[in-house]
Amino acid sequence: GAGRPVQRLLLLSATSHGDTLNEVVQAYQSGPENAPLTGCILTKLDEATNLGSALDTVLRYKLPVHYVSTGQKVPENLYVATRRFLIRSAFCIPRDRSPFVPHEDDIPALLSALSIRSGSQAPEVQFG
Q1: What's CA 127's distance to the chain center, in Å?
Q2: Angle in degrees, CA 47, 50, 53, rounded to 5
Q3: Which residues pair with 11 in a beta bridge?
Q4: pTM, whole model, 2 decimals?
């Protein structure tokens, strides 16, 4: 060998549920026979609806994110992870991919529903 210790990086899919990510980290954390984890690589950022679970997991286990992948082509879609990229990816969902952003064709219908509602009073709700 080269005399250098092996550094273990864990692959974490950004599309996975938080419980699954926690189980993966726990399964591969350092044990008596394993070297400790040096960090991780976040994959499938292009397929993830959000990064909340993945970022929660890496923060909880204090795993440095070394690389991210945004597609199936390696090495073309493999990038060094930066804080700026992770923050932008976490908070800036492209409008065309979000299911919660109305399309331009929907706006007149939404506005007409609002104007109808503003002219009438909502029924009172009573509890108990």
Answers
A1: 39
A2: 110
A3: 41
A4: 0.69
